[in-house]
Amino acid sequence: MTSLYRSAARFRAELRRFLRQSEDIARANGLTPRQHLLLLQIAGTDTGSTTVSDLVTRLQLTQSAVTELVQRAEEAGLVQRAQSPNDGRVVDLSLTPEGERRLAAVYASLGPERQQLRAIMEALEE
Amino acid sequence: MTSLYRSAARFRAELRRFLRQSEDIARANGLTPRQHLLLLQIAGTDTGSTTVSDLVTRLQLTQSAVTELVQRAEEAGLVQRAQSPNDGRVVDLSLTPEGERRLAAVYASLGPERQQLRAIMEALEE
Fold this sequence. Notes:
- Two copies of one chain form a homodimer.
- Chain A is built from five helices and two strands; from the N terminus they run H-H-H-H-E-E-H.
- The first copy, chain A, has 126 residues and is mainly α.
- Chain A has a single domain, classed as Arc Repressor Mutant, subunit A, CATH 1.10.10.
- In chain A, helix 3 (52-59) packs across helix 4.
- The radius of gyration of chain A is 17 Å and the shape is elongated.
- The first copy, chain A, starts with a helix and ends with a helix.
């Protein structure tokens, strides 16, 4: 039994360590862990903007949780809304310069951690 | 900015999907997500047993949170305690047959998801 679970256990332990570190770094840059993921998901799209509906899938949160998260991020000056050029009924979300600055700071701090996590995952045997 | 964050955003979206799936499968097998990780961390050690102190590091939880988690898992018949053969003051934790059965069921269901996650991680560019 033991050898079967060894790599999965190591993977989960490292994953928790990575997520914990990521949350700590987000907070050190004035972001909640969810705000950090929100900014990353907006910035990581092909166009640099997205909609609430897209974010529901990407963040695995409910529509109302995403709506509240976006509203608070907007109030904090991290995210801005604009009417979609393609469909006037849709609101596009993008980062403000301050949102971009904080996301870049978290990303830079997390770099080495992410590399370490990737190395561990590549070693996952199954 | 966009291309820089694209793979990180995809990685986090897939990670959240994986963790959500893992939590759903744990619950479908009568385990809380934390109980699942507890059983995995006990079973994944070299000896198949471990101590509360070890689990504090592996689960990234406080000593009191681990103590409570272990106590509830013991009451649920998933985990058993024994005095360590090496040091009588230390309590070794191991899985009961029922704990082993449920962990194996979660592990079997999660398999394909984990492979998918690994493939995505290997594609992470940085």
